Task: structure prediction
Amino acid sequence: MPADSALPDKETEMGPERAAPNGARQESAAETRRADRDTSRVRWLRDQAARLHKRLPLRRRLTGGLAHGIMSSVAAVAAYLPTQLFGLQEGFWAAITAVAVAQTELGATRSTARDQFTGAAIGGLIGLAAYLALGPSVPAYGVAVVLAILVCWLVNVASACRLAGITATIILLVPHLGPVERMAGSRVVEVGWGVCVALATVWLVTRVNRWLGVKV
Result:
């Protein structure tokens, strides 16, 4: 009888231990479902915005495209010219970054700027580390791209993973003169400068448009 009476106590003690992992698994599954729903909603909203944009009248598309083109051109030229004065050999990357970042809306410009700089920084660091550790080889390049994209996902900036992979590609595959450390540093500086110029240009244009009452 004492042995029998001890069994319920053991089962009672094991109950919470079994319930805890089950509860953790259920919570994890619920979080996964919520994340999937949020991802689906974001994709749906993005598709709806793209459809609405295509339905804009020709006049609105003309003014919007012209404004976007002028801002991008001004930002690209302003980003490129100083690089020549400072002797940066590949200052065109600053111009490319400015064109990629400049948007007609300041909020969208900030988001793109964050992605561009974060991707360049992560890709530059990962590419440099792979170059120094494994040398300029195809296996090193493959590892660098995987790690660069993985790090972007881990720090919750998955939208920057493309540029991170591209930056790692440039460091490991594009022939260059001088130390690889200088190349990686120059790339981050050029991208950072292009981001700053694009942000400043769009901010200034936005302020002027508000002051003049112009809607783009």
Observations:
- Residues 97 and 194 are 5 Å apart (CA to CA).
- The helical segments are 2-54, 58-85, 92-101, 106-134, 138-154, 161-173, 180-212.
- DSSP finds seven helices and no strands in the chain.
